[in-house]
Amino acid sequence: MSLASRSIVVRGPTLxxxxxxxxxxTLSISACSPDYPKCDTDEDCHQGEFCVNNLCQQCRTNDxxxxxxRCASGAxxxxxxxxxxxxxxxxxxxxxxxxxxxxxxxxxxAPPPPPPTPTACELNPVYFDxxxxxxxxSARDQLSxxxxxxxxxxxxxxxxxxxxxxxxxxxxxxxxGERRAQAAQQYLKSLGADGDLSVSSMGEExxxxxxxxxxxxxxxxxxxxx
Length: 226
Hints:
By secondary structure, the protein is an alpha+beta fold. The protein has two domains: 42-106, no CATH class; 126-225, CATH 3.30.1330.60. It has helices spanning 13-32, 103-106, 137-153, 170-190, 212-218; strands at 50-52, 55-57, 69-72, 75-78, 93-96, 99-102, 126-127, 157-163, 196-203, 220-225. The strands form four sheets. A four-stranded mixed β-sheet has the order 7-10-8-9. Strands 1-2 form a two-stranded antiparallel sheet. A two-stranded antiparallel ribbon has the order 3-4. The chain is rod-shaped, with a radius of gyration of 51 Å. Residues 1-5 and 25-30 have low confidence and may be disordered.
């Protein structure tokens, strides 16, 4: 008879001994694994859980939780105000660094405002001494600024109107006003001011001064762009 066809029969004390050995191994294995959710290592927990302080928990750190959640007392919970786009925020809020914040706080990253618009230049009057049409140094300085302004504006030119204080006859003051306007016109042309520079005189008609300081303001040439 071959060995393969032989059957082994165990009887009596030998069978009892074998059963006792198996039972002892089973009890020994059971005693090594703590009851869930208690644990010694991550292997004692369900898949996806971690052994923390001998208890199976959902997470150990924030890195164990999905995006938008944090680890709190071993469980993943939603982070209040978490966002990935402005659409997830309430009205008046925007999403910044994955958090909904008030619009005014996000304004720190708003583009800078445009530079202020340059103020347009002005053609200012020039003033004269009493009974004179000679240009003073201050009048020449102002005429230089006016010439630059005429070029900057690219106007067709300017109307120059001579005025006087009320002292003297009307005829004399009309002529004096015209001489003042002509003196200013000639100086502007010498500076290269372009366009039509016409002159006129109103004499004392617009005079409003009642003393020397007021009369000094009356003695002038006004400019108006065309």
